[in-house]
Amino acid sequence: MGSRFGLSVALTTPFDAAGRIAVPLMTEHAKACLDAGCSSVTLFGTTGEGASVGTAERQAVIDAMLAAGIPADQLVAGVLVDAAEDAAEQCRQALQRGARNILLAPPSYFKNVGDDGLFGWFGAVFAALGPLARGMLLYNIPSVTTVQLSLDLIGRLREAYPGVVAGVKDSGGDWGYSEALLKAHGDLIILIGDERHLAPAVRIGGQRSSPLEPVALQERQQLGAAYDRLFATQAA
């Protein structure tokens, strides 16, 4: 089983009346989640409207979080763009600042791209990053991207780029896929984005990720405590 990841809150991105990111509010919100016991916050994911946040805006948010005293290793940055050059730049921006992980979605504008094409795209991103490339969480969310990351593709990327792919976030909602993913790549961090499948996944090595950012902190803490009990039972 992969190293323990903990609970990462999928942070929403607040905007002011002029359509600008409300950076102080977002920073305060992140600190509140971490103070409540979350392991990290995930910025610019699906919940955080990451595909709509530009590179300069992302930098301003990350820098504000760091200036506010949030440790870089408690930040996970989502990257949801189609051009490999843009993806590499957004990854570089976060990694150079010490971000814990990158949640990297596949390109999605052109449909029905095969494994070879996806392998080439991810490879171009990793190559552009060079020695910075690390901590990549491949993002399987076919309801948004229309791309399901195949087990073979994950294996090819692991073999070609050792130490770069840290895990997979599976938000596909397909238990058959999740189970097969855990069996094939259970030594990676496998994050389950669908709470319906969390308990059975944890029993065979899965871990939690939280899309439940809008849920009250007390309820998230209760979910976290339940997960901890499941994790302890699975690890024993």
Which features characterize this protein?
236 residues, 9 helices, globular, single chain, alpha/beta
Characterization of this structure:
With 236 residues, this protein is an alpha/beta fold. Helices cover 44% and strands 14% of the residues. It contains nine helices and eight strands. Strands 1-2-3-4-5-6-7-8 form an eight-stranded parallel sheet. α1 packs across α2 (55-67) and α2 (55-67) packs parallel to α3 (84-96). Residues 211-220 have low confidence and may be disordered.
Shape designation = globular
Order of helices and strands: EHEHEHEHEHHEHEHEH
Main sheet summary: 8 strands, parallel
Helix content: 40-55%
Please tally the helical runs, counting DSSP H or I stretches of 4 or more residues.
9
Give the low-pLDDT segments.
211-220
Taking strands numbered 1, 2, ... along the chain, how are they ordered across the largest sheet?
1-2-3-4-5-6-7-8
Q: What is the typical, i.e. mean, pLDDT?
A: 86
Radius of gyration: 17 Å
Q: How many strand segments?
A: 8
Distance between the termini: 13 Å
Q: How much of the sequence is in beta strands?
A: 5-15%
By secondary-structure content and strand pairing, the structural class works out as alpha/beta
Offer a quick outline of the entry.
The chain is α/β, with parallel strands linked by helices. It contains nine helices and eight strands. The two termini are 13 Å apart.
